[in-house]
């Protein structure tokens, strides 16, 4: 390699923004190395970066090349993919085939990712077939991309076939397969794949921990975190976020505080926006609103998720007024709210009993931010209006909801259940009957029957109350058992009504008997 060429490549590697890149490119051209394909691929690679590159500049350069190599084409496919131009990435792949170039194991991963991003199952299968024709049966890079693509389509069986065909699997192969099963809701098989994995790096551990948490198996996620720690492996940021999510949903504040101290001991500062948001969410859900607000106020940068976590935290802790005030502050800062923001702010209005403010914000959500209400928004608003006694407005809102065929019956049932609850609270039997009749169609659940029966009983209509209970029994509608959990010395204990599986159940009953006796003694 000549000294001049080495200097040109050195200048390219040192570039930090487009102005520097253009200067280095000019130096490359004037020094007679303008046709250097390796240097040109480095230029395109820099342009592909969404943060400091320029896709348009890279595309203009690419179009000037008469006969691009497969390496340069691969870089252009990567550039389009990283910048979200998925159709253009597929177009470059098509050009490769037309011109007679042979795709390699760097081509297919990004093309398969583009197919996954486009959610084009048919196109993905075609690319898969092309990779087989070209002999990439056993390539681990292509295989891992196939697993990831098929799991994004929800086809875990096809993903497993691709996984089984890889003769020499890497840790990435096991990670993607565990994540695939977890995303499909099959955490048992995900755990089996994890246990079979001969190599367990942070990615594999992270996939099973996040898999449990994503499927609401929070206790199991914490158990896996403890197991990972016993191996001496230090968690990465993604694992910390998953663990904090588990602590938040379990209300396991002691464990959450310990995780915070553990992070500080590792000395990995500063925290990312994502991790601080995880701590804010955990502290807020565990009732430590002051700590959550302190972390939020100290954030040098905030994204929409951070604002949502803080607004939601205030709302769930009953501080509706400050949540609404924080929402106004967010708007003044120029942060655009999303649909999750409005769920949080409607909840805040609910806690503060501010029904008319919620209706004003609903109008703002639709007209100013062009966000279509989802079933969660309707459910929250109907519950708010019902609590406020604005049952007519609540019913009008329910009737405005889209048909259940577009979102599912269980989601529509949330709003109708809220309306029924409001009617029962305010003794509106006629409207309650209408809501209950709709719920009987939408779900096989005892709640509507119990609420309506109790309403009739409270109104002295005992025959009607018996009729509803009899209807429930005839239709075979059972009541789901209640479940509760408590954290003691950093361990979360779970109890299900009617079950005696807990190892210390006898001691629990003994304490309850003592409490009963003491209460009897005090009258």
Major sheet strand order: 1-2
- Structure annotation, total helices: 29
Low-confidence spans: none
N- to C-terminal distance: 95 Å
C-alpha Rg, in Å? 29 Å
Strand content: under 5%
Quantity of strands, as a count: 2
Average pLDDT over all residues: 87
Reported for the largest beta sheet, the result is:
2 strands, antiparallel
Coarse morphology: elongated
Instruction: Determine the structural class based on helices, strands and strand pairing.
Output: mainly alpha
Helix content: over 70%
SSE inventory with pairings:
Elements: H1 3-14, H2 18-30, H3 37-48, H4 55-63, H5 70-82, H6 86-99, H7 107-118, H8 121-133, H9 140-152, H10 156-165, H11 171-183, H12 187-196, H13 202-214, H14 218-230, H15 237-250, H16 253-266, H17 273-285, H18 289-297, H19 304-316, H20 320-332, H21 339-352, H22 355-367, H23 375-387, H24 391-399, H25 409-425, H26 429-442, H27 447-458, H28 462-474, E1 483-488, E2 491-496, H29 505-521
Antiparallel strand pairs: 1-2
Helix pairs in contact: 1-2, 2-3, 3-4, 3-5, 4-5, 5-6, 5-7, 6-7, 7-8, 7-9, 8-9, 9-10, 9-11, 10-11, 11-12, 11-13, 12-13, 13-14, 13-15, 14-15, 15-16, 15-17, 17-18, 17-19, 18-19, 19-20, 19-21, 20-21, 21-22, 21-23, 23-24, 23-25, 24-25, 25-26, 25-27, 26-27, 27-28
